[in-house]
UniProtKB/TrEMBL annotation:
<dbReference type="InterPro" id="IPR005122">
    <property type="entry name" value="Uracil-DNA_glycosylase-like"/>
</dbReference>
<dbReference type="Pfam" id="PF03167">
    <property type="entry name" value="UDG"/>
</dbReference>
<protein>
    <submittedName>
        <fullName>Uracil-DNA glycosylase family protein</fullName>
    </submittedName>
</protein>
<feature type="domain" description="Uracil-DNA glycosylase-like">
    <location>
        <begin position="34"/>
        <end position="191"/>
    </location>
</feature>
<dbReference type="InterPro" id="IPR036895">
    <property type="entry name" value="Uracil-DNA_glycosylase-like_sf"/>
</dbReference>
<dbReference type="InterPro" id="IPR047124">
    <property type="entry name" value="HI_0220.2"/>
</dbReference>
Amino acid sequence: MTPEITNPAIRAIADAIAADPANASYTARGVKPLFYADPRCRVMIVGQAPGRVAEESGIAWNDRSGDRLRDWMGVDREAFYDSGKIAIVPMDFYFPGTGRSGDLPPRKGFAEKWHPRILELMPRLDLTILVGAYAARRYLHLPSSASLTQIVRGYRDYLPAYFPLVHPSPRNQIWMKKNPWFAADVLPELKDRVGVLLA
């Protein structure tokens, strides 16, 4: 399972999210908001939204994309889920549904409503890993026309607070072959920074 939220203040936010009328259809089905945060966290991962498998299992990043993300970060499952130092705070805490070309995007306004309240309770946070275009554009205050490839190529411009990444989906294998600088330059620095913060 995604780690249980034990901090009372963050637990209260999770309860408020579940009680929000905008999330009533999920709560009625017994679906809880899927995220993890704790005052001890040093690293936060902001992705798009849980997929169908994550919603059904209650475990964030528990798929091949998650395996690859952990490899990119240089952490194992124990450190990822059980260290208490890695926050998982996607742009939407619920599976938004399926569209013609994959999962629907996270709902507009969701992150804007809930993320600031959660961030206030993580004073030790030093690095936010932005996975994919929605997270990168939101947190780096970039227009929707901003190219994710160019954002990731210029990742040093956003350090030390933010580290933008492409999505670790196996579908991005072709992108990685076209952009060998990502594995050669970006990933070693990501591993180094995460390793220091989790030590």
